[in-house]
Amino acid sequence: MAFDIDMIKKVYQDMDERVNKAREIVGTPLTLSEKILYSHLWDGNPSKILERGKDYVNFAPDRIACQDATAQMALLQFMQAGKDKVAVPTTVHCDHLIQAKQGAAKDLQRANETSNEVFDFLESVSNKYGIGFWKPGAGIIHQVVLENYAFPGGMMIGTDSHTVNAGGLGMVAVGVGGADAVDVMAGMPWELKFPKLIGVKLTGDPQGWTAAKDVILKVAQILTVKGGTGCIVEYFGEGAKNLSCTGKGTICNMGAEIGATTSTFGYDDSMERFLRATDRNDIADEANKIREHLTGDPEVYNEPHKYFDQVIEIDLSTLRPHLNGPFTPDLATPVGELGEKAKKNDWPIKVDWGLIGSCTNSSYEDLTRAASIAQQAVDKKLKPKSDFGINPGSEQIRFTAERDGLLKVFEDLGATLFTNACGPCIGQWDRSDRKGDEKNTIVHSFNRNFSKRADGNPNTHAFVGSPEMVAAIAISGRLDFDPMNDTLINEDGEEVKLDPPKGIELPPLGFDVKDNGYVEPVKDGSKVNIKVAEDSNRLQLLEPFDPWDGKNLMGAKLLIKAHGKCTTDHISMAGPWLKYRGHLDNISDNCLIGAVNAFNKQTNFVKSQITGEYDAVPKTQRQYKAEGIPTVVVGDHNYGEGSSREHAAMEPRHLGVRVVLVKSFARIHETNLKKQGMLGITFQNENDYDLIQEDDTFNFIDLENFAEDKPLTIEIEHKDGSKDTIKANHTYNETQIGWFKEGSALNMIKKMNK
């Protein structure tokens, strides 16, 4: 039986009336995305047309999911909200703080020893406030959500950018910062700009080596890392029905890499099969009663150009397998063409590691397709030339895969089986075969491949592909290997060719598990004590940020002008820094250390206008804070691309940065800045970025008149005495300006609860 079935039944009971009302108000047939959005309005039934890309709208999500790295700060904030219990079903999943090194058993034991303080904190807070808790080793948050909590037509938010994975089961699931989640936990609405809609029409059936992963690799090439910003991507067509539910999840998962608000698919037979296979017949039965509301109207899909802001068409029958990378997930190359491209760009051809798993590709079907390639290597006497690492998606997947002999296939090939956790995908990888910054190549089935992402090495060239393609390339040991056309020499000196992969959508004997890792909270948490040691270096109770003094901001100094790509990984690195996610002051020592200084092209080396000396970004900023000097960060396009990491907003705020001025923002990061009481603004004229000099001082001369839809004026004083006056745009509405005035959204919640 499903979790929270009464809540799901209520969503479905309301849906018929709300969808019909929305269709009447809008006056046209509706996409699936619109049906879910309009049926989850905070005020209930729709009452007016909502303008895409313009109107800020309050929504009522059905549930929340948090992973252990982001949950720490989210729950530390919620503890200040003055509530006895979360207002909507919420779960916490321990998957980020487990480092992949020796193998599942030893790695999990070490994580429980080194991070027990954090795990105990998360479990106790969950117990106190009525939150479901998934223990370390239970699985990766998004796979666990897909198997247990996602349901067609629902809306959820999660404190991880790959929350969007649940779109594979027909949800509108959106990654948010912890402050957004706290709003909803506290019984407040969740605010989102009404998204634009991109329709992706899929035709045909994937053949041979082509996988669901190749769909999103191709879409990433088409839309780039920022092409989906402010949009929901809705997949439809006969081709969509030819994909498994978990294949759909893979596609939605990596939609985060194109900046999309989320991605989704309409309810179909594959989703029903998955629901029933994961012991959720009750949801499938209820969904079937309102099936027409759980997908787009037929007219929409028949003439998509009338109803979507942009339409892309992909024929799965002719789609070729791709590898995307290095250093960006939208650099797509068809397999077979990488050799020439690698030589031209001096990318290492030798592949050192093949990594299979992550929240993107760790389903039963993924493992069977990769295992079918691994079994061929065993049968055809091929010894892998690369190391292999496997991360199952959940304990249920791992247990079932072990029962069915899939894991033994990988073990026979010499693979290391890591814990059911994120591991290398988020930098939690103690890679024993590399030291320093040696140039090398790895292939993986993950979603992101930014510089330093997997192993901290800026010269690791990471390429993203399907699990079966990763397996084939790891066996060959070469980036230029094309399994569709090339042969390999086995241990007997024979020339052999790999056959196309064979996958099994769902386990024929059903899923099974002894202990799925779930801990249900007590009914009354009032007697549960939460302890945070004063001398802890892992956890720190939060102090409220100061409210705005209502005056113009004058004399602010430039901290850093970031050059080029500046993701949340550059602003607040993961890897070894994950251990400080619950301690704002300690983790602030990684603030912007990965951003490239535009004036010297170095990282973590900026000029102090106090001393005139160059030093680390956090140390320099702490000097400004000690002197009471406000500062400004300047950035390029799509600033804050990547994860939902609100630390990337909280750290600068904690250290005294007041303004982030960029060419454009990634959606989640812009919201996170607003939530923390920061001023996140964009150049009205992008070329004004070039005016910023290393010793500049900024005066915000009309901030006292901060208002919705009104640009701000900035006077820039240069070291030589000259001045430039520029305009900056913003997207703050009246509520968000209130957050800025109060010092943060949380300050406003506390004020309202008083």
Automatic annotation (TrEMBL):
Enzymatic class: lyase
GO CC annotations on file: cytosol
The reaction(s) this protein catalyses: citrate = D-threo-isocitrate
Cofactor(s) the protein requires to work: [4Fe-4S] cluster
Keywords: Iron, Iron-sulfur, Lyase, Metal-binding, Transit peptide, Tricarboxylic acid cycle
E.C. number(s) listed in UniProt: 4.2.1.3
Family per similarity comment: Belongs to the aconitase/IPM isomerase family.
Taxonomic source organism: Psychroflexus salis
Aconitase A/isopropylmalate dehydratase small subunit swivel domain residues: 557-686
The encoding gene: acnA
Protein name in the entry: Aconitate hydratase A
Aconitase/3-isopropylmalate dehydratase large subunit alpha/beta/alpha domain ranges (all copies): 34-477
Residue ranges of coiled coil: none
GO biological process: tricarboxylic acid cycle
